[in-house]
Design brief:
- The protein is of the alpha+beta class.
- It is 45% helix and 13% strand.
- It is built from 21 helices and 16 strands.
- The chain has a four-stranded antiparallel beta sheet, with helices on one face.
- β15 (445-449) and β16 (454-458) form a beta hairpin.
- α4 (55-64) crosses α6 and α18 runs antiparallel to α19 (399-410).
Length: 476
Amino acid sequence: MSESSKSSKSSNLNPSPTLQCKDLHEYLKSRSAQFLETLYNYPTICLAVYRELPELARHFVIRLLFVEQPVPQAVVASWVTQTHAKEQSKACEALSELFVWQEAPIPGGLPGWMLSQSFKKNLKVALLGGGRPWSMSSSLEPDGKARDVAFLDAYALERWECVLHYMVGSAQTEGISADAVRILLHAGLMTRDAEDGSAVITRAGFQFLLLSTAKQVWLFLQHYLHTAEKRSLSAAECLAFLYQLSFSTLGKDYSTEGMSNNMLVFLQHLREFGLVYQRKRKAGRFYPTRLALNITCVKDGLAPLDAAANAGYIIAETNYRVYAYTQSSLQVALLGLFTELIYRFPNVVVGVLTRESVRAALRGGISAQQIIRYLDQHSHPQMLKSDTGGVRSASVLPPTVLDQIQLWESERNRFTYTEGVVYNQFLSQAEFAVLRDYAKGAGVLTWHSERARTMVVTRASHDDVKRFWKRYSKAS
């Protein structure tokens, strides 16, 4: 009898990793304890972390905020009834992962919980006042060229679309900085072409384009923070400034007085990405845009900027034709990722969802759910009035279109790969039957053939099956 290994690292025919957009909790959980300790020196970060905690965890924090000695873990557990033990476990896990509290011994040897000193101190500052005033809150003379919210929204969208135009290879790529290109390459959203060295979009980049604007910006900024040290900037200081901006007021100008040189450099980068507006580099004031205020809005759904700019321009018909009433070349390019464009007029584009166009998008890493969500989010108001023939659906798309997109995806997932070890070349049918029955009884038999005297077991069980075979061989 001999054995050989067969394995695959994918669970479908065309592997395409899903782009993960971590929220603040997930992002901070992946950072070191030392980094978090530095972050908790900033009241804005402490307040942002507190707001992102589960409801029960926030309850624990408030009850411990003014306690100066460790509280027994049994006492904390007694605050919650047994019916909510699962929520309590999640709350304790979240607080421990973010180092908001640590285990601290109590005289007598009982385990206790105690809030991190820096987190406790600066959360009190954020909630109760005190500490140093924000430098950007300095009083300013009235701006003679004040900008309103509509201008700031248009400016933010224009600057951010420069990045997206560059990713889809649009001709409208002027304005994107070399620094932004480096971040796209670092994030794996684009890569250098092997032949001419030009930047081309990757599978992750395709998925990135179909995210909401708030998710795109936050994911982009996460990779900016990962490379902050290369620019001689502090990632903790930059993140604290970002969340300081997220608590600012849209349409209000803020002063740059008292900002360090590093933060002034960071401000210019935010200006390039559209998170702040500044008339010129040396202007003593700046305006945060909606992109900066929405960095915490990474849940599913449209942020206000998305809703204002992109909502309501796509009509999908039961014959798989898609009509997009838009003049934006970026929106046309995005639609071209999963449809076959057939007509283009000054204010409308006509495409069709075909098996080939959708499968091309799937090969690029875009999922059927992402395509459906994108069409749903940008559906024309007329779509809400369409008759679905009495079929209830969470989507406004015609049921035929919805089902067909999902079926085209399922076509590619007909095979399942599992790692395993092949056993063959048995000397007799009896030996094959003994090992087959043992593997089947242990629940580790993946496949077998009586005629070929061949069987496959899971890789994890290989050592156990091998030990059984050696014992059986010696005994016989």
